[in-house]
Structure formats: structure tokens, C-alpha cells
Amino acid sequence: MRTITLEKIDNNINENRTRANAIIRTSSRTLCRKKKSRTRTPGEVKALNEISIARWQKAVRAGKVKKLGKRSMYYDYS
Amino acid sequence: MTTVEDLQEALTYLKDRPKFERQLEFTALLTEYFKCKGIKPIVVGGLSVEIYTRNDYHTHDIDLVSDGWNLYNDLLTKLGFTRTEREWYHVESEMAIEVPSNNLEGSLDHVFELVLPNGKTLYIIGIEDIIIHRIEGIAFTLKYPKEDEDYEWAYRMFLIHKNDLDLDYLVEQARKLNIYHLIEEW
Predict the structure, then answer these.
(1) Do the beta carbons of residue B110 and residue B129 sit within 8 Å?
(2) Which chain B residues contact residue A20 at CB under 8 A?
């Protein structure tokens, strides 16, 4: 069995990610976004929906998203 | 007023920031830079989905609907972006920008202005229109559009924002584009 430390993985990512992304971007045959091939189960979709709703509402409660007007919003991305 | 030098500086200090923050801050700077030229970029596509889902969805591109494509080309080239077909990308900051059109497929009245913590602003396609776009993109090309990832994200945005949506407009647009049957059950 091979072993690898998280530190080693992090180092590999830090060293190679930027170049890898650049290569993929230039060599990609299509500029379209790649889609995942596996369809989520209804249960997974439901769970993710609930998490997404909660995430937005939490941001509103924390004052990170505030309506400033009919079509204007304060938006803290953190 | 934002200058080319400000944008150059931003590419340096933003490169170590989280991707979402980097994209929003850089877009806000571009928005400010182009303001004095009478150009108003509007965020569309994946980044708008990411904004409306609070970073739940991930995209690597900044898609902007804007006039002045040549001005973008001049500016981004000056800033060290490389052009590949319709997209400019910057390896160091890992940002990619595309200006697919100068015409917003949707309502300018529904565009949102976002004010970031530093007071800078950017403009984003209305939620109703990005929901419509995501559905329209799959409605006529896929056998089972409801099983597609884009359908899922469109529905998710609807669920998150349904109390703030202009439902009349959403339904009207969906009917006009023959995709209402896909959202009727929502």
C-alpha cells in the first residue's frame, strides 16, 4: 500500500494547479462547461436545495446580504 | 476612478484570495474602469448562479454582457491576459473572462446592482432571467432536461429566491420561450 501525506498532496496542488488549469483551458476542445455525468438522486437534490436555501437565509440573518432598494443589494461574499 | 495600473495591482493582490472573492472584486474593478467610458458590464452565466447561490455553485469563468469588446481586448491584453478563441485568461490569477454578447437576453429592469463590502459595485442579470437561461439551454437539446444539472440549479435558485421573484415576469418569459411546462410544477 502506498502512503502519502496531506502536506505532499498540498505541495503537489500548489506546484501544479495553475499550470494544469492553463493547459486544460488551452487544450480543451470545447469552451462549454463540462457537466457531471451522474444524475443526483431526488434525495440528494432535496438535501442540496435545503442547504442552499439555508445558506442564503443565514447570509441574510448575518447581514451579509441586504436589500438596499428594489434592484440593489449589499453583498458580502465572505 | 479605476486605472489600468489599479487593475494590474489588483491581479497581484487578488491572486491569493478565494476564487469567488477574486472574481467579484475584479469584476467590480472592471465595472468601475469601464463606467467612465459609458460601458456597463453585466454578469451573466455561471458567476451569476454562484452569486445567487452564495458560492454553492462553482464556475471558473466571468461571463459579461457588455459593449466595447475591443476595449476589453485591449485592456485585458495589456494586463497580461491571453486570448483563446472567445475567452481571455490570466494564468497567475487563474481568472478567465468572456464577453459573449453586448445584448442582454433578458430585462434590463430586472438587473441587480450589487454593492460589495468595499463599496464597489457590479451588475448582475436578474434572477428570473438566469433561471430562464439555464432552462432554455437544456429544454430543446436534451431528451430529459429535468435530469440535467442546469435544471437542478435553476430550480434551486427559484427555491432560494421565490419570495423575491417577479413571478409574473418569470411565467411570461417561460411561456414566451415555450419552456413553461418545465417549471410549471415549481
Answers:
(1) yes
(2) none
